[in-house]
Amino acid sequence: MNMYVSNLGFRVSDEDLHALFAAFGEVTSAKVVTDRITGKSRGFGFVEMPQAAEAEQAISKLSGREIEGRAISVSIAKPRSESGGGRGFSGGRNNSRW
After folding, report:
1. CA–CA separation, 94 vs 67, rounded Å?
2. Pairing mode, if any, of strands 73-76 and 70-71?
3. Burial of 9 from C-beta contacts in 10 A (0-12 / 13-18 / 19+)
4. Is 13 a domain residue?
5. Count of structural domains, the chain
6. Which residue of 18, 43, 58, 96 has the lowest C-beta tally within 10 Å?
7. Regarding beta strands 2-6 and 73-76, do their DSSP bridges make them parallel or antiparallel, or are they unpaired?
């Protein structure tokens, strides 16, 4: 089960995130998302646990828990949209005045 973890302190590492969730069972992956340019944490990450029951327990026990002075939020991750998101611009020339 993939989980989305938000409101992380900016010093939380992948290893910290892994250890936090490992208390509830096997962790397949734990990744804090970082800025591509600066390499600094963006304050959120993703954790994957193969056992749904363990993941659900982690969600219920960790959501709202204070880590580095911040109450984290843990939820089931939503799949990424295949459309690519963005603002609907095609990347071509925009002929409108606004």
Report:
1. 46
2. unpaired
3. middle
4. yes
5. 1
6. 96
7. antiparallel
Confidence category of residue 92, pLDDT binned at 50, 70, 90: very low
Phi, psi dihedrals of residue 63, rounded to the nearest 5°: -65, 125
| Tens-digit pLDDT profile for residues 14-50 | 999 999 999 999 999 999 999 999 999 999 999 999 9
Contact 49, 21 (CB under 8 A): yes
Average pLDDT over residues 79-97: 54
The tokens describing 34, both together, are 């970082």
Query: Is 86 a member of any domain?
Result: no
Q: What is the CATH number of the domain that holds 51?
A: 3.30.70.330
pTM of the full structure = 0.80
